[in-house]
Amino acid sequence: MVNEGEGGPSGGHGGYGGDNNDSDTDGTQSLAFRVMRLCRPTFHVETPLRFDLSDLIVGEDDDDPQSQFRRLLQSQSSTTTDLTYTNRFLLHDDHPSDAMGLPGMLVLPQSFGAIYLGETFCSYISINNSSSFEVRDIVIKAEIQTERQRILLLDTTKTPVETIRAGGRYDFIVEHDVKELGAHTLVCTAQYSDGDAERKYLPQYFKFTVSNPLSVRTKVRVVKETTYLEACLENNTKSNLYMDQVDFEPASNWSAVLLRADSHHSEKSVSASREIFKPPILIKSGGGIHNYLYQLKPLLDESAPMKFEGSNVLGKLQITWRTNLGEPGRLQTQQITGNLITQKEIELKATKVPSVIILEKPFTVCLSLTNLTESKLGPFEVLLSLSDSQEEKSLIGVGLKKMALPQVEAFRSLNFQMNLIPMEAGMQKISGITVFNTTEKKSYDPLPDIEVGLHMFLSCYCWSSNWSNQKHY
Amino acid sequence: MTHRFSISPIHARIPFSPSPPHRQNLAGDLHTHRPRLPLLRSQSPALYNSHFSKDHRMTDNIDNADSVKTYNDLCYDLSSLQDLASRGAWRSILDKVAQARSRSLLSKPHEHLVYLSFNAIALTKLRRFSEAVAELDLVEKGLDIYRYETYPHHYPNRHGSMAPFVLRWLHAELPSRLGKRQETLDRFYILLQFIKEKLTNNLPDSSREVWKKREGLVINSIISHHLSHKEFGVCLDLINELINRESAPVPRAILMSKLGYIQMQFGDLEGARGTFGVIERIVREQKGDTEMMNLVNRNKALMFMVEKDYASAVREYQECIDRDGSDVVAINNKALCLMYMRDLSDSIKVMENALERIPTIALNETFVVNLCSMYELAYVNHSDIKKTLSSWIARVAPDDFDTSCTRI
């Protein structure tokens, strides 16, 4: 950008010569490489010092000098024969927006700038013959060298350039999608026969560094059956990034939906051309962030009602951003994983709870234990633990503290009953039920609480276990 | 009661007077034979000089007695000041103002203010910002005293502020030129408020129109400041407001094009495409003239450019240039497209040709920055050719031309 009054751009020239490795060259070179990075141009922006005649030569409260001065102005500015710099001084009546200083003129990139992973490196390469003699049979090569590899961009070995006259040039444009971080070198070499028919070799090196444009941080949360993926994109570049596309591609066992906030009523533009003013997603340079929220649901396969065990691959993000004049960059993240899901082996449910439960009178809860695995599990011990809470329990059992259950076959359920006595009125939870596998000597994760509604309570009794329909008091 | 500045029919017509010494010197500079830039296709020097021959003096811009009298009726020797300003002779303006002050040539208060305005503008144009700020000290102190009713013996029965609005605008703009960007933004927003309050008063229609124009000017200035700092969100909101206010089709189309440029600048290509589409419909319905048709072609060219279809972009720009040979935006952008098509030689030719053919229109800092970038790429020893360009600029350019754009 040329900012009027601040002096021209400092440093960074458009075209530049690189380093020469002189070990292979002797004497002077007839040829030289000139290189300029060809990222897209930008629009020139300035605040012009141009004024309306009526703002300049009459008092601000004087009215209608317009018609007079319109005549004056028209006599002054006829487009082709006006050979003055009036356009640098006056604003035209018909073009009030000239004061915005955005004439639509494009400016070439004024410095190499920064280059980021996912962008395309594009460069104009000009090989100049600054000698007074013709050079012949020029073999030109251009390569990108990184830590890991050498990528050939151009090679005229098979069809060498026949000749470059004195003072002449041979130009080419190369492009390379940047896929590695760190130091890169554009290596330009030319072999040619100079004016004395001597075969010369010219290598030139142009170095640049590739940085990471974005940081992506993810958080996975599971709420009941739904998994939520929150992705935070942080812009580490020096320009604002227009997020053209941010797509989450789920793994094959998931489906994903992007959740968008409802737009605030003030954002809804009342303009006729509403579609133009959709607010863009623009992440500010140097650390700006934008968050995306995806709702993921597992795609359940009918034949296998099982959940996967082990690490949970959710999918990856595909990101396309754009900078000035739509200069694109594309990246995708690594696979994003969710929380480890341990496979549930058993499930405990209340199948029947009496509709009326009287305070301090025992009631029977029917429960079922389901074996979710492929093999027999058990035998079990079911405990209503009293030791967890220090508060007074609202439901108690007295008597047998544990109940023995036999083995349960694969995918089968076992029904049993518990007798409980309520000590408090209202909605209560049956909690603290632990199931212990006596064979494997392990207890299962605390099972979900079962809620029961209790009408009234009376006094306390003994608890009994009667799954075998035998009552023990 | 309002006063109109009209030419009284009672006075006899005064024949156009010969140019005062100042103007002749300036015209003299521009008559110098311009050394031709190397690598240009040969153009007859005579063709170039004929623009500046004694028969077609640039001084003849203010070429009818009516305008001269109108200006001078308003303010002492204003037609001279105008002429100098139109030719970018800002140093001469500084001399003229200094002279008028030291010789007490100005008799009325408002004349001092007009001369002060020109002085402040000249200093700003010449990038002498601190001096410009000093000149505007009275704005800082308050313009309320500069009203016609304060000087009834000079201005019987006149009311209102005699201060030109430009003083307020400059007062807001200058801090940014001294690095105090936030101060400028604050002042512009305050100025906007001042104008809006003025518009709530019961103004006559003509006055209302003028203040509404000033409101637009200030919003445009604010947008340009936000744009240069890439604050695109607020730019979109403000330009939305301007578009909604603008009913005349031509200014509306031009304004919407700028919205398109802004969208392109931050990368919203689909948004820009939509915007340009709306403009095309407006121009088609209006059966637009050359200017509007060129606007549409240039917008189309931009869309081709972002798709990297440079050949089609060049074709669109050529249509513009064929229609209007002084469409500098088309010429500049066409040259850039040629370069992106690997045709550096032709891009340089297009630029040099324009400078030779239409120097006063093509000669601007952006144009020169682009040409110098091309020179730096094309030549190992580019300092020679840039020096030649530089000397040509020195002879032709206005005083306020920022020569640092050549990067010599």
Cα gyration radius of chain B (Å): 24 Å
Q: Strand share of the residues of chain A? A: 35-45%
Strand fraction of chain B equals: under 5%
Mean pLDDT of chain B: 84
InterPro entries (chain B): TPR-like_helical_dom_sf
Region (Disordered) (chain B): 1-24
Protein name (chain B): Trafficking protein particle complex subunit 12
InterPro entries (chain A): TRAPPC13, TRAPPC13_C, TRAPPC13_M, TRAPPC13_N
Structural overview:
Chain B: This is Trafficking protein particle complex subunit 12. Chain B: InterPro entries: TPR-like_helical_dom_sf. Chain B: Residues 1-24 are annotated as: Disordered. The complex is a heterodimer of chains A (473) and B (408). Chain A has 473 residues and is mainly beta. Chain A folds into 4 domains: 8-40 and 109-211, Sandwich (Immunoglobulin-like); 53-104, no CATH class; 214-337, Immunoglobulin-like, CATH 2.60.40; 346-461, Immunoglobulin-like (Sandwich), CATH 2.60.40. Chain A is built from 2 helices and 31 strands. In chain A, the strands form 8 sheets. In chain A, strands 1, 5, 7, 8, 9, 11 and 12 form a 7-stranded mixed beta sheet that branches. In chain A, strands 15, 17, 19, 20 and 21 form a 5-stranded antiparallel beta sheet that branches. Chain B is mainly α and 408 residues long. Helices cover 67% and strands 0% of the residues of chain B. Chain B contains 21 helices and no strands. Chain B has helices at residues 21-30, 45-51, 65-74, 78-86, 90-102, 109-125, 129-135, 137-141, 166-177, 181-200, 205-228, 232-245, 249-266, 269-286, 290-306, 310-323, 328-340, 344-357, 359-362, 365-378, 382-396. The longest helix of chain B is centred in the middle third of the chain and has 24 residues, at 205-228. The radius of gyration of chain B is 24 Å and the shape is globular. The termini of chain B are far apart. Residues 1-62 of chain B have low confidence and may be disordered. At the A-B interface, strand 2, strand 3, helix 1, helix 2 and strand 4 of A face helix 3, helix 4, helix 6, helix 9 and helix 11 of B.
